[in-house]
Amino acid sequence: MAATGATAIGAAFLAACGGDDDGGDSSSLVSKPVDTTNQAMRGGTLTRTVNSDPPTLDPHGGGPTAAGLREFVFSRFFRYEPGVLEPSTGKIAPDVAESWEWATDGLTLTIRMRPDVKFHNLPPVNGRAMDLEDITYTWERFSAQSANRNLLANSVNPGAPVLSVTTPGARTVVFKFKEPLVYVENFLGHRGLLNLVPKESRDLDLRQRMLGSGPFLLSNYQPSVALTFQRHEGYWDRSRPYIDQVTYPVLGEYSQILAQFRVGALLEGPISQSDVLSLKRDLPQINLFEGDLDTESRRTIFGWQDTNLRDERVRQALSMSIDRDTWLDAQYNTDIFSAQGLKVTKRWHTAVECGDQNAGWWLDPQGKDFGENAKYYQLNVAEAKKLLAAAGHANGLEITSNHITTGENGAGYVDFISTFESMAGEAGFTFKKNIITYDNYFNNYRTAQGKFNGLSYKLGPINPSGNALGGLVYEFSPIGGVGFHGFDAARTGDGSGDPHVEAELKKATSNFDVEARRKIVHDLQRYLAKTMYNIRWPGGATSFNVAWPALRNYRVFRAGDQQENLINLTNWWIDSSQPPNA
Predict the structure, then answer these.
(1) For residue 538, how many other CB atoms are within 10 A of its CB?
(2) CATH superfamily name and code, 19-50+216-292+541-574
(3) What is the rounded distance in angstroms from the CA atom of residue 361 to the CA atom of residue 351?
């Protein structure tokens, strides 16, 4: 693998670039973000992008495109508190909840609702205030229809936590739980779970429209063209958002995104790490910012109908054939950034993602505390071949590779698959391609919990709890929801999970002792390194982002992996006196 697009940038460029950078040193390549909220002006249109039409607009439906849009259209009981000029810690803040209180036994959560939450000024609700009937209807609809209902609704999944949702008094909502769950508030703030809808939705097709109470409303949607959102004038936070309109043209090709950024039609965007330095060279007036540790949520998942993949030695061999550092260097352009004097951090995923939001919970597989199972993350082609031979495949193993080639999973998806399969080929693996449609992928591979043959490559969904323990439950517990991959420790293919993992997770989720939970999470990472029930793509590295100076507060309010669009679109503002306008 080789990174491209930045190799020609030398020391003279490093010394010369700077531009108008919201307070950064003009002699520095990297701009320093500055909180300009006290200067914020209302107005303007921000153009962003989506790479495909949402598969559905339903707030309780699925699909990665729709998930990012739901963040700022629908309210939830809670939201995530951003970090200000530092990474987010994942702390919960109120959204439509004004206050909340736990019973001492951890089995009852009582929420007092804000009195000033209004739905969008669209028919048939026409800006009316949210009431308790909306809450009970939302819970009824979520429990009946949501792809993620198994995570919360005990009526659907006997292992799920919520026994009932009642509204006993004015502005009071009471959740009753089967057993304590330490991250319930995170669930009630997640964009893919309990998005609040009006009771009038009974008579509406929410697959075709969005009707919520969040800071923006969907004013126009032309499939394959664009989605347009307007500021919600009745939003409960009267000071925000600042931007009046956000448009999302459907741009399926990365070349289109790059071209639109170059001419200033996009003030920011999903710019490849291999392009940010060359853009800064060509457009010195733009700002280059150090980003968070950018992590990749894709992973290789296994179809347990393939008996070969039930043998952990085969999965271990696949993992040990991956050169994680080389992959990260290419994906995040790390060698090039380092050569320019920029500080770069690289980390490897374990069963827990290595992002900043999991600081203190993620256990470094390259560190001294991980133990002997760290070897399954190390590149060792010779050992991978021995493992494959011991599993009965001395002459190699062909595996069916089921994946899409269209753009729904992002511009780099197919390239990443090629990288994975090319590296695995060094250990003797070959891949028989089964190219499928996105709908087929989504329904029969991504959410099928291993009920297929061969392997596939999964993007998301994002861990709905926002913390390391919840992520382990979501992916490795049979009662954890759509994130479970369908494995079983006995290698029968029955999808029953791993009794040891299940027991440890159960202990942790009801334990309010932080250090006791942390020990369990660390031990599970060591254990799951050996079982390798899925293979996360390598990890993450320091990212660098570019934005035009007109976009203020960029990189100030930091969301981590949760509610990034909500936090950005309610805190950014447009300064028309700055480039590309000036």
Answers:
(1) 28
(2) Periplasmic binding protein-like II (3.40.190.10)
(3) 11
* Homologous superfamily of domain range 300-540: Dipeptide-binding Protein; Domain 3 (3.10.105.10)
Closest to 524 in 3D by CA, of 539, 538, 508: 508
**pLDDT per residue as tens digits for the range 180-229:** 999 999 999 988 899 999 999 999 999 989 999 999 999 999 999 999 99
Q: What is the pLDDT of residues 408-462, one digit of tens each?
A: 887 789 999 999 999 999 999 999 999 999 999 989 999 899 999 999 999 877 7
Q: How many CB atoms neighbour CB 154 within 10 A?
A: 17
Beta-ladder partners of 245: 45, 230
pTM as predicted: 0.84
Q: Is 453 exposed, middle or buried (0-12, 13-18, 19+ CB in 10 A)?
A: middle
Helix (H, G, I), strand (E, B) or coil at 88: coil
DSSP states of 128-179 as a string? PBP-HHHHHHHHHHHHHH-TTGGGTBTTT-TTSSEEEEEEEETTEEEEEESS
Q: How many CB atoms lie within 10 A of CB 577?
A: 10
* DSSP letters spanning 385-442: HHHHHHTT-TT-EEEEEEE--SGGG-TTHHHHHHHHHHHHHTTTEEEEEEE--HHHHI
Distances (CA, A) of 39 to 71, 242, 579: 26, 11, 17
Per domain, the residue ranges of the chain are 19-50+216-292+541-574, 300-540
Q: What CA–CA distance (Å, rounded) separates 240 from 80?
A: 16
